[in-house]
Design a protein that fits this description.
single chain; 272 residues; alpha/beta; two-stranded parallel ribbon; 10 helices; 48% helix
Length: 272
């Protein structure tokens, strides 16, 4: 009787161990590709000519791929070049048709049917319906229409979800923690390193923090010009220094949609 009891306990323990091992092996391994210490996404807003003229050559020289959030208002002037950029492995995504920032006057229906839906259709037509469906909030504003902050953001979120947007980026906040990304993918943090001035230091500080945390940095650029003129610009020289610093770091630099997919596959908890 005693021997039989020990045998049963041994079998139960072995079965439990096998089950735990099976669950452990089913869990994807966390961490960034190729032992990288962090992830970085370079994003460019508005579909500006200076990005094609000045940012893209530097990205190409360093072998970096980026995300370009286009508006139809700007992109159609050089559409063939944007299409070639997407074929070269860069991500092209939605920044609305006309980049409205004053959103309190919009109803959900008006905003969806005049800004989001037609831009998704425009991108599907010219860049393929199988592209990553990511989004950048114009001016970093997350609220739409009237009501309190929670109500306005929920209204905006529902529109993006209906259009199958999987991840959306604002223009503030620190490095993204992967657990934070999977819990709230429509509120990804990002940083505009040269928004207030043509300085390298803010970008270096942000990237240092990201590497220390093992997180995900999303940088935002607008015009990339020979000289910095106004808020949002980056000079060609400072932009090149930021990219060179990223290329020299032990980080994984990839478009925003690609990094998001990776985080989703590694950090999302399996459903029971």
């Amino acid at each position: 009787m005693g021997g039989s009891d020990i045998s049963r306990r041994s079998l139960v323990s072995a079965a439990l161990g096998a089950g735990l091992a099976g669950r452990a092996s089913a869990q994807p391994r966390r961490g960034w590709p190729d032992g990288s210490r962090a992830a970085v996404s370079l994003t460019y807003d508005d579909g500006l000519n200076s990005q094609l003229d000045n940012a893209v050559p530097e990205l190409r020289r360093l072998g970096l791929k980026a995300t370009f959030f286009l508006t139809q208002t700007n992109a159609h002037w050089r559409l063939a070049e944007w299409e070639a950029l997407a074929r070269d492995g860069h991500e092209v995504a939605n920044h609305t048709m006309s980049h409205p920032c004053a959103l309190r006057g919009y109803s959900a229906g008006r905003f969806e049917h005049s800004e989001i839906d037609p831009m998704e259709g425009y991108l599907d037509t010219h860049f393929g319906a199988d592209r990553e469906r990511t989004y950048a909030y114009p001016c970093g504003y997350l609220g739409l229409g009237q009501g309190d902050r929670r109500e306005r953001f929920a209204r905006y979120r529902r529109i993006l979800e209906r259009d199958s947007v999987v991840a959306a980026r604002t223009t503030s906040g620190g490095p993204n923690r992967p657990s934070q990304v999977v819990s709230d993918p429509l509120h990804l943090h990002a940083f505009e390193p040269t928004y207030d001035g043509d300085r390298l230091a803010p970008a270096l500080k942000y990237l240092t923090e990201t590497v220390a945390q093992g997180g995900w940095a999303i940088l935002v650029f607008h015009d990339v010009l020979p000289k910095w003129h106004a808020d949002g610009d980056a000079s060609v020289a400072t932009h090149a220094k930021i990219l060179a610093h990223i290329a020299a770091l032990n980080v994984w630099c990839a478009p925003m949609g690609q990094v998001f997919d990776y985080v989703e596959s590694r950090w999302r908890q399996p459903t029971r």
